[in-house]
Automatic annotation (TrEMBL):
Residues 230-352 form the MsrB domain. Its EC number is 1.8.4.11, 1.8.4.12. The keyword Heme does not apply. The keyword Transmembrane helix does not apply. This is Multifunctional fusion protein. Belongs to the MsrA Met sulfoxide reductase family. PANTHER family: PEPTIDE METHIONINE SULFOXIDE REDUCTASE, PEPTIDE METHIONINE SULFOXIDE REDUCTASE MSRA 2. One of its GO terms (molecular function) is L-methionine:thioredoxin-disulfide S-oxidoreductase activity. The active site is at residues 49, 341. It catalyses: L-methionyl-[protein] + [thioredoxin]-disulfide + H2O = L-methionyl-(S)-S-oxide-[protein] + [thioredoxin]-dithiol; [thioredoxin]-disulfide + L-methionine + H2O = L-methionine (S)-S-oxide + [thioredoxin]-dithiol; L-methionyl-[protein] + [thioredoxin]-disulfide + H2O = L-methionyl-(R)-S-oxide-[protein] + [thioredoxin]-dithiol. The lineage of its organism: Bacteria, Pseudomonadati, Thermodesulfobacteriota, Desulfuromonadia, Desulfuromonadales.
Length: 368
């Protein structure tokens, strides 16, 4: 296989250095408790190269840990070399430990669908062979039922022209891959980016899921949420609004429009007008910026890794306006445990009594 040759060429040194035997986990891995008594859950997915699948799941808020490994085969303690040869029956897979209070199993399924080609039974993208096929390995009946429901919904959505062939199988045993495969996207960022860029994965996903933006529901009449050209933005935005939304700037804490706003209403993107947050989800975080426990319309929120300030944070942007809004942190209050810390300069507030007039009447019911 081309990709196996490519991997071998890039990582021969690492393979020789990896001498740790793979560990196995059994079917009793479903829910477990942390030392503090907080419930965690486990999910197992296959979607081609586990470097990419691990990276995609690890970025999701509420995901605690992602491990790359092998499952679904008939050979105990397989090595990567054995699995990649295609003779063990295993697939490359990831085991996801997550906090169900912050991210649901249904949401994890959605993450999987958005990062694979569920119509390909012969592998995934440049990786060919049954060892790279997509699959959902359910740990209990609830996961099975949710997976079947989600698969059916995707099939009926019309997103794909071909049948959805991703398998839904009972989880049995998971074997942890060699150490050099774990956190590969972080430990070897240049090689990982080179592989991913040439794998065809992102090109395919952009083609399929960009339709979501093009088919976005209109705000009123035939007007869609969109980003004006730069010349228009410079005329309509204040210098601070432009700096924050277009240059990823940050406004001063406690000296901005909405940090202490207690009026009822919604917050929309200052650039595109797409609805983002509700006052019903706003709380006083003490940070000096408007903070929310969840988005009003999740589909309008895009998360990206931010490596500025010598740390890795999760940046929040608007989907249609592509505006920098702020960041999300995991130190928020119940029920989500999240803090969407936003810049007032990226938002426009619409009071409840103006929602109908401004074209956001669909959100009135939540305030009654």
């Amino acid at each position: 296989m081309i990709i196996d040759w490519f991997r071998t060429l890039l990582f021969t040194t690492l393979i020789f250095m990896a001498g740790v035997a793979a560990a196995a986990t059994g079917p009793d891995q479903g829910a477990h408790m942390t030392d503090k008594g907080k419930k965690q859950m486990v999910a197992t997915f296959a979607g081609g190269c586990f470097w990419c699948v691990e990276s995609d799941f690890a970025k999701e808020p509420g995901v605690i840990k992602v491990i790359s490994g092998f499952t679904g085969g008939n050979v105990a303690n397989p090595t990567y070399k054995q699995v990649s040869a295609g003779g063990t029956g295993h697939v490359e897979a990831v085991q996801v430990t997550y906090d169900p209070a912050r991210i649901s199993y249904e949401q994890l399924l959605d993450v999987l669908w958005r990062h694979i080609d569920p119509t390909d039974s012969g592998g995934q993208f440049v990786d060919r062979g049954s060892q790279y096929r997509s699959a959902i390995f359910y740990h209990d009946q609830e996961q099975h039922d949710l997976a079947e429901k989600s698969k059916q919904a995707l099939q009926q959505s019309g997103r794909f022209d071909k049948p959805i062939v991703t398998q839904i199988l009972p989880f049995k045993t998971f074997y942890v891959a060699e150490d050099y495969h774990q956190d590969y996207y972080k430990e070897n960022p240049l090689r990982y980016k080179c592989y991913r860029r040439n794998s065809g994965r992102d090109e395919f996903l952009e083609k399929i899921w960009s339709k979501e933006i093009k088919k976005a529901a209109p705000m009123t009449g035939n007007t869609r949420y969109h980003k004006p050209d730069d010349a228009t933005l410079r005329k309509t935005l204040t210098p601070l609004q432009y700096k924050v939304t277009q240059k990823e700037g940050t406004e001063p804490p406690f000296k901005n429009a909405y940090w202490d706003n207690k009026q009822a209403g919604i917050y929309v993107d200052i650039v595109s007008g797409e609805p983002l947050f509700s006052s019903l989800d706003k709380y006083t975080s003490g940070t000096g910026w408007p903070s929310f426990v969840r988005p009003l319309v999740k589909e309008n929120i895009v998360e990206r890794e931010d490596h500025k300030l010598f740390s890795v944070r999760t940046e929040i942007r608007s989907r249609h306006g592509d505006s920098h809004l702020g960041h999300v942190f995991s130190d928020g209050p119940p029920p989500t445990g999240l803090r969407y810390c936003m810049n007032s300069a990226a938002l426009r507030f619409i009071p409840v009594d103006q929602l109908e007039k401004e074209g956001y009447g669909e959100f009135l019911a939540s305030f009654k």
